[in-house]
Amino acid sequence: MIHGTWEPAPATRWEDAFLTGNGRHGGLVYGDPDDDRVIVTHHTLVRPNNTPADTAPPRLAAALPALQDALLAGDTTAAERFTDGRPLRWVRPFHPAFQTRVRRPPRDPGQAVHRSVDFTTGVVSGRCGKRRGEVFVSRADDVLVQYVCEPGPVVEIDLDHRLPGVPADLGTGRGIATAGRETVLTLRVRYPESPHGYTGLTLVLADAGRTTVTASGVRIEGARHLLLLTRVRRDEGGGTTVVEREAEDLRALLGSPASLPAGYAALVARHTALHGPAYGRVALDLGGDATARALPGSALLGRPDSAALLERLFAAGRYHLLSSSGLLPPRLTGLWTGDWNTAWSGAFTTDANLNLQTSSAVAADLPEVTQAHRALVEGQLADWRDNAREIFGARGIVAPAHTDGASGHSYHFSREYPLHLWTAGADWLLVPLLAHEEASGRRDQRVTAILTELARFYEDFLNRTGPDGRIVIVPSYSPENRPRGGSWGAVDATMDIAAARHALRSAADRAPAPDAPRLRALADRLPPYRVNDEGALAEWARPGLRDRYDHRHLSHLYPVWPLDEINPYDTPDLARAAHRALELRGSENDSAHGHLHHGLVAARLGDAARTGDALARVLAGDYFHDSLMSAHYPGRDVYNADASHTLPALLIEALVQSTPARLVLLPAPPAACPRGRLTGVRTRFGARVDLTWSPGEYRAVLRPDRDATVELRSPAGATRLVLRAGEERVVSS
């Protein structure tokens, strides 16, 4: 089994529940035949935790010139006082809505349980004796669908908000309306000390039997099939947002089916028509052993050297990334959580985590992810303008390092994490949108407009120069590290230099004639990168700021990955310095994102051994739950999507890389992947690539959708490829 996973027992922890989602609603499915629970989530569910005044960006622009003067004069701790005095404010935390429960008398202990998830359809299934259940979240109809066959003589169904960490003073109200074989269950929730909340609605349909009302739901006797359709709606105004019309909408999804099985089949068909093709565009086959492929996921995770494990994790990562992307891109937990106390608010961290999770979107041909990413960016531009104006006294935009998905204000910062000083975020968030344009061959005027605003910020902000006439970036911050010999807020962080240069040059490429030369000239005045005394690319270009190597972030290697500014082909000296920096970098607390980020940079630098080592650390570190969703730390500590969503990107980068003018085949294949087939990879010059390889051999089939001339780099050397739209091209060793 490559395109799915299974377990021989129900989940006992929500972290092990199988996942389904459509980028709006999510479901965590336990697969317990006695108490069939599905935790329902929605991207919009974030709990109010601050007043509007607390979540505004700090008004510090008037004090900025004094801070710049102090830092340039050598006061290395000056930025620690650049604050409005507020304590650290976390963004609004993501939380689950409730769980649907279908309870029945205990099963015969001898009956086997089999639960599975099919990545090609997004359907989670469970079997125990005659009882069978299926759950999915429809991409076509935006509804969580739960279908139960042979539920037993008696079942009880309700909506249960009592999940771990639920506030004791959460306000709840229930509604139960039943007529014949149809029931509408509603759960209205109000946050403590807030007019806001959300409403959940489940339409329960039975094909036979008798329905009676219980204290919290309904009891159904004698049904052969049950169908539950569930939606959640956030309420921002204090009134009921899910009304009778919502129930009518759910009824309308079924039309007038001849039977519940027929109605369910129609729902599945509409969903899989969208989900299936998206999931199937890219696939990886490493020739895994058939016996290993047949193992349940929990057993396969005990074989970290197995090709079958890599195949399944690649497939699971693709599935989870697609399923969590729609209204918004994936959060730190994707689209899922079973706990109200989600680590780091279950938010979007944009100084590494979100960027890593979505890094395969273009190459792995998931425009659904790119569109969700664009929605996050476009929805926050007004707040980004506030950040630029209030903190830096500048036009343009500054993205926050931490956001709940609604507010884009920079208000999550402290002395040790002066995230309000970070100016590189908008550029990093635009990288996948620019790569999507390159792959499609079509420029988006919306992206151009955002780049123009970002360039305006840099024109206003980059107003200090050194004795040599070069720009000095002050203040500057390298997430989430600090230099030896300095403090967190510093001068000329390498990442800030790279982001400013990339943004200005990208904007200049699209700017009208009078503006383009000015933007390029500003980019050219940015400081050069510095190579330190140990031969490594320094994290701060400012002399005197020494590197602190044992850290999980690799912000200073931003010009290597995700940018292509430093690479072994065009800038070999800087590439060697970047490689030395990678060699010296520690792993600090073994965060999964740190290992995979390390591997992505190593792959760009052509270091197969280091790429493979980063991959092996994640595979052997017990980072994956039985659901094949991942954890932030070893030992399955802290539910987190970084490893799950980033692993496919690492494998693709190790096997196929592209720029608008270059294709690199097998740049850094890990030893764990001596042979295989990777199909459907999308390049940034408009061709799709199918690659087959084995020791000493490779064969790549290119299918371009437009004319292109690119440099080919492969184990056979370098050559020039001339591609014609619609003409298949084969290269091989």
TrEMBL record:
<feature type="domain" description="Glycosyl hydrolase family 95 N-terminal">
    <location>
        <begin position="6"/>
        <end position="233"/>
    </location>
</feature>
<dbReference type="Pfam" id="PF14498">
    <property type="entry name" value="Glyco_hyd_65N_2"/>
</dbReference>
<dbReference type="Pfam" id="PF22124">
    <property type="entry name" value="Glyco_hydro_95_cat"/>
</dbReference>
<dbReference type="InterPro" id="IPR012341">
    <property type="entry name" value="6hp_glycosidase-like_sf"/>
</dbReference>
<dbReference type="InterPro" id="IPR008928">
    <property type="entry name" value="6-hairpin_glycosidase_sf"/>
</dbReference>
<feature type="domain" description="Glycosyl hydrolase family 95 catalytic">
    <location>
        <begin position="264"/>
        <end position="655"/>
    </location>
</feature>
<dbReference type="GO" id="GO:0016787">
    <property type="term" value="F:hydrolase activity"/>
</dbReference>
<protein>
    <submittedName>
        <fullName>Glycoside hydrolase N-terminal domain-containing protein</fullName>
    </submittedName>
</protein>
<dbReference type="InterPro" id="IPR027414">
    <property type="entry name" value="GH95_N_dom"/>
</dbReference>
<keyword id="KW-0378">Hydrolase</keyword>
<dbReference type="InterPro" id="IPR016518">
    <property type="entry name" value="Alpha-L-fucosidase"/>
</dbReference>
<dbReference type="InterPro" id="IPR054363">
    <property type="entry name" value="GH95_cat"/>
</dbReference>
